[in-house]
């Protein structure tokens, strides 16, 4: 809640102006029954028609001005809600962008999206409509009660008797309305994830002929949504009748009790008319108050859910003593010293990387091989600090990666992940993703994109597309093959000319011949740069300066190709198997 104050404080002047408009609106509204009273009295005393007509004109004029001021007050106050909503959502997204990869391993995308959309909307309601009514109801009551008490005190008390009941009933109904709204939202998110999963997994659905099951499951989800929406409509429909009943009851009391007073000559007809007018003016704010209580509840619950996200610290940040001025550029010497690492999955903290040490000079090539699940990806993820080591340290040019500014560290490393991910934009933008355009011209950027594509062995294919580098990838454009995606992610990593290149099984989806071509082109790009290759196919790594074999997080063999063959261990065995396969294929 403190955070919300911080946001709304920026718009304090608009809140204040809106408040002034509210007071003005109330004053104008409250003057109407008074002029009505004067008009009735004029009729009673048989004043000429023109007098009465001028009262009517006055009342109409006040109503028009009131409508304008009222609109203004809504615009001012509701817009604060909308602006805070916008700020909050931006900050929330910026915060999410800073959170470590580990955070997302335990989050559902749907849940995060619902918080960014629904909960932030609840905050808008709280700060807009909620705040307006919080201000408005007391103003109306202060005005209305004072005048009504002055007109006829006992009648005021009698007329307001039904109001607490109204407040209570409206509060209950709106609580149910909120609960029902949440249920509808939940069903809606179920439905959208059903659609999303089925569209994304359409190949699997087809392959297993699960269409009927999917259709049935969707229908069930859709039915549930309809049921909940209908319930919501029913609850919402109760509000109007309740309000009319309550204000009708109040009017009934006033007519009976007040009517007798008029007959007994203790009250004028004009006062009675004015009284009924004031009573009706109070009905809406009373109801709004009841409704607002649930808006506040919902807003507080939403803020709690948002606070849960805000309270997550970006665990991997620049160390306090990280060098503010980046040292001379990174050369690319990499050293792992007794590195241990485990994913904090609940309470099982078994080591995924267990006491790994090696050293790589600038410009050298390291290869990591090992069976699936050995920890290869985990090992290289530690270098750009996707995760931090549990024990030991990783040094680049002799400095602990945790003491390097993140920006410098990460921009020095070109990373080709195991699952190629591309954004749904133009090929050119995907490849240029990491290029720091500042300073360099457009032509330079273009040149780098083309060079990188050539080195990744994808240039001719891109030029073969009708729209070339302008081709949009993904949902709105062409679909690429697995190998094409891999090579595009490689081009993206190369385009920024990083000092260190990490390829996590990045050529697994291309055939041996294409791979040979890419490796040839890469050799020039990699001149003087350090590189780490993870590969299952040993032809990719034979020429590495250092090859390490990883098993269950430990280095079990190390050396260059020749020495590992002499050792006759896992590597030698794997090499013989692959050679056999290759000779079978070519024969
Ligand atoms: P890796 O993902 O590091 O293995 O997971 P790898 O060597 O690269 O395997 P391939 O060749 O790509 O298939 C190492 C271990 O860490 C666990 C995995 O279950 C595996 O046992 N792991 C991985 C996690 O617990 N959490 C993760 O986020 C990733
Ligand atoms: Mg892997």
The coarse silhouette is elongated
Give the total of beta strands: 10
Q: What structural category do the secondary elements indicate?
A: alpha/beta
CATH fold field value of the largest domain? ABC transporter transmembrane region fold
Beta fraction of the residues? 5-15%
Report Rg.
36 Å
Q: What is the highest CATH level, the class of the largest domain?
A: Mainly Alpha
Ligand inventory reads: uridine 5'-triphosphate, magnesium ion
| N-to-C CA distance | 73 Å
User: pLDDT below 50 for ≥5 consecutive residues: which ranges?
Assistant: none
- What is the makeup of the main sheet? 6 strands, mixed
Oligomeric state of shown chains: single chain
Q: Walk across the major sheet and give the strand order.
A: 6-7-8-3-9-10
Layout of helices and strands, plus pairs?
Blueprint (H helix, E strand, L loop, with lengths): L1 H8 L2 H33 L4 H50 L2 H4 L4 H43 L1 H8 L1 H39 L1 H6 L3 H53 L5 H42 L23 E8 L11 E8 L4 E5 L6 H6 L9 E6 L2 E2 L5 H6 L1 E4 L10 H5 L10 H14 L3 H6 L17 H14 L4 E5 L7 H14 L4 E5 L11 E6 L2 E6 L1 H7 L2 H17 L1
Parallel strand pairs: 3-8, 3-9, 6-7, 7-8
Antiparallel strand pairs: 1-2, 1-4, 4-5, 9-10
Uridine 5'-triphosphate binds next to α11.
